[in-house]
Here is the input.
Amino acid sequence: MAEDVFKALADPTRRRILDELVERDGQTLFEICARLVTRHGLGLSRQAVSQHLAVLESADLVRSRRQGRYKYHDLNSEPLEHIVTRWLRPRAPESNP
Amino acid sequence: MAEDVFKALADPTRRRILDELVERDGQTLFEICARLVTRHGLGLSRQAVSQHLAVLESADLVRSRRQGRYKYHDLNSEPLEHIVTRWLRPRAPESNP
DNA sequence: TTGATAGGCAAGTGACCACTTGCCTATGGT
DNA sequence: ACCATAGGCAAGTGGTCACTTGCCTATCAA
Here is the structure.
């Protein structure tokens, strides 16, 4: 649902998580936590990140696969493709004066 | 700022307002109120809509021009153009099996 | 089996946000 | 001048949301 996608994108931390996943798929919860700290200076609890991932999953922006005691997270950019096109209109090409 | 754009898009009512403006530019506050009621069944106070418009304006998704006692609102879709591309990756074209 | 690692569940808290209400300003018509 | 219309300002309220804390389960290694 597009509704959930907009909600998911509303939070800055969740957008950072997407930034991390678009760069490297298949990260675990702990990896994401670590990278949020080292690369963005975000010191969040593990639960916080876990809850963010749940929101992203319910918007189908993140898919997860369990493997042993690890859970790998992958970005799914498909819901983003046309989420914004409903407000786009043809822009006049710039004519240099 | 992209930050403000995501915040602006987070609210369903604001997205409806954009829906109205993409269909017809130059609407006044009262017009938008009326159309939200008649076309979407949203019964909001005038102030609520006014505040939503302020948020949309601060995200530069809506531009307004004053003329006499009227204030006309126009959609500006430009901030939406590339807001989402940072998470898009090349998708493999579907090969029919 | 014991301990360490990866993750989940659930309740509590504080802050932000959407919305309302009441009052005020400004422009235009008659 | 009067009144109606279009809009703005500011304080108050309820609900949602991000985040924490504490405890529990599951997998792997020694």
